[in-house]
Specification:
CATH class of chain B: Alpha Beta
Number of strands of chain B: 9
Strand content of chain A: 15-25%
Distance between the termini of chain A: 47 Å
Largest sheet of chain B: 7 strands, parallel
Helix content of chain B: 25-40%
Strand order of the largest sheet of chain B: 3-4-2-1-7-8-9
Order of helices and strands of chain A: HHHHHEHEHEHEEEEHEEE
CATH architecture of chain B: 3-Layer(aba) Sandwich
Largest sheet of chain A: 7 strands, mixed
CATH topology of chain B: Rossmann fold
CATH class of the largest domain in chain A: Alpha Beta
Oligomer: heterodimer
Shape of chain A: globular
Number of helices of chain A: 9
Strand order of the largest sheet of chain A: 6-2-1-7-8-10-9
Shape of chain B: globular
CATH architecture of the largest domain in chain A: 3-Layer(aba) Sandwich
Radius of gyration of chain B: 15 Å
CATH topology of the largest domain in chain A: Rossmann fold
Helix content of chain A: 40-55%
CATH superfamily of chain B: Methylesterase CheB, C-terminal domain
Number of helices of chain B: 6
CATH superfamily of the largest domain in chain A: Vaccinia Virus protein VP39
Structural class of chain B: alpha/beta
């Protein structure tokens, strides 16, 4: 049976984006990609993926608009509070033994996880000796992350999550409120480098002791998952830690044997 | 709807997707009671559940049913005779290589997992070899997905709204298109059992 037209169009669009802009979505999980592309087609008022492809090739601004759909930022501070609780209880005591710490937040999106991690490290007395690399492929997300401005609507959820994660102070200590937004304390990003980095095409840039990469791998196919975990393995120093999203696992991947779980339910692993 | 339609020859169905919300626990218990362990199709369920709490659905139905029951995981291969539930807080999607994938994309009809996301991706994978079942529920999720299944040549089934604990979900589908069958749970159950032969 011939391939459905939409499938063909999808492959061509992804190839066009790769050839024209070097953004590589070729090894992403296609079911989600398709939904996102269809949303972009609708939002940009195109009649087909092919029409969108023409515009993407000729109009860099249109590509940047489409990229916002292909990398939909969905995040919250202290998402899955039990993950952060497990970090405090099981990882922090070991991180304390290092004189300096490099931490990599891969796929940091609009920065919610970066500020969460900085708050946690600050409360555990580790922020001053830590360096956080926060990377993403979407420049607009990185810019938002750098600004640290979040809608007031989301603060209630962030606060609840923070408390459930074992937060030691009051979440309101970490931001100043203005109208309908809150601005995160800039102290929290003094130790952060925001950088453009692709798990699909770039290589390792630093030796790290802890990598947190949550709900990124689910968007990749098996091959790209292996590539990403390979990068993490290469970047992590001796007995370094890796934290994943609550439904992500290393079980069936190429590097399954290279890590051991230390908090199984919270998906925190340690390099063997 | 008339019962003799049930016996029309379908394209061979290779998978069943089921969407349900409010009233789902009871409805699924009736629908799937007594399904044999060697049932030849995978059954994939999105039941709306609150995010951020561990789901007991797989555990509950594993106790009740002879079928194997699992919470679907990212990149898990889809097997026949197995009942899968979408995990809370994630959309459950089917890839064309017949593996699951998960996403945390925005909610659809305030729901994650969303029935539409499962139904649409499953229809793109199985085409005419898919049956979709939409049951009781208090929102419109699943209607567009079920129509997509029918558009791809698959079999679209809706619980009789008169019987549904909450009829918004079945009625939303009926408002959008005409499914192949509108049946009470007992009739849907018979039909699903017949698909495996």
């Amino acid at each position: 049976m011939a391939e459905p037209v939409l499938e063909i169009e999808l492959k061509l669009l992804i190839e066009a984006i790769y050839l024209r802009y070097s953004y590589d979505f070729r090894d992403y999980a296609m079911a989600s990609m398709k939904r996102r592309v269809v949303q972009a087609v609708r939002a940009l008022e195109c009649h087909s993926v092919s029409e969108l492809q023409g515009r993407v090739l000729h109009e860099p601004d249109t590509f940047m608009a489409v990229l916002q759909y292909l990398t939909i930022p969905v995040s919250e501070m202290f998402r899955d509070p039990e993950y952060y609780r497990a970090l405090r209880e099981q990882v922090v005591p070991l991180l304390r033994t290092y004189p300096s710490l490099n931490i990599w937040i891969a796929g940091c999106s609009t920065g919610e996880e970066v500020y969460s991690m900085a708050i946690l490290l600050e409360e555990e007395g580790l922020l001053s000796r830590a360096h956080i690399y926060a990377t993403d492929i979407n420049p607009r997300s990185l810019e938002k992350a750098r600004q640290g401005v979040y809608a007031t609507d989301s603060v209630r959820l962030f606060t609840e999550n923070y408390q459930r994660s074992g937060g030691k102070h009051s979440f309101s200590d970490y931001y100043t409120a203005a109208y309908d937004a809150v601005l995160m304390d800039k102290r929290l990003r003094e130790r952060v480098t925001f950088a453009d980095h692709s798990l699909a095409t770039d290589s390792v840039f630093a030796e790290t002791q802890f990598i947190s990469c949550r709900n990124v791998l689910i968007y990749f196919n098996r091959g790209l998952q292996d590539r990403a975990v390979g990068l993490f393995h290469e970047s992590l120093g001796h007995r370094g830690f890796l934290g994943l999203g609550s439904k992500e696992s290393l079980d069936f991947g190429q590097h399954a044997g290279a890590f051991e779980p230390i908090a199984r339910a919270e998906r925190i692993f340690r390099k063997r | 709807m008339n019962n003799e339609h049930i016996h029309r020859p379908y394209a061979r169905v290779e998978a069943v997707v089921i969407g349900v919300s409010a009233g789902g626990l009871d409805a699924l218990s009736v629908l799937l009671e007594g399904f044999p362990t060697d049932y030849g199709l995978p059954l994939i369920v999105v039941q709306h559940i609150p995010e951020g709490v561990a789901s007991q659905l797989a555990v509950i139905f594993d106790r009740k049913l002879a079928l194997r029951v699992k919470e679907a995981n990212d990149k898990m291969p889809i097997e026949s005779g197995c009942l899968y539930f979408a995990p809370p807080g994630y959309h459950l999607l089917v890839e064309t290589n017949r593996h699951f994938s998960l996403s945390i994309d925005p909610r659809v009809h305030f729901s994650r997992p969303a029935i539409d996301a499962l139904f649409e991706s499953a229809a793109d994978t199985w085409g005419p070899a898919l049956a979709g079942v939409l049951l009781t529920g208090a929102n419109a999720d699943g209607a567009a997905g079920l129509r997509h299944i029918a558009e791809q040549g698959g079999l679209a089934l809706v619980q009789d709204p008169a019987e549904a604990q909450v009829d918004t979900m079945p009625r939303s589908a009926l408002a959008l298109f005409t499914p192949h069958h509108v049946l009470p749970l007992a009739g849907l159950r018979e039909l699903l059992l017949q698909l495996d032969c």
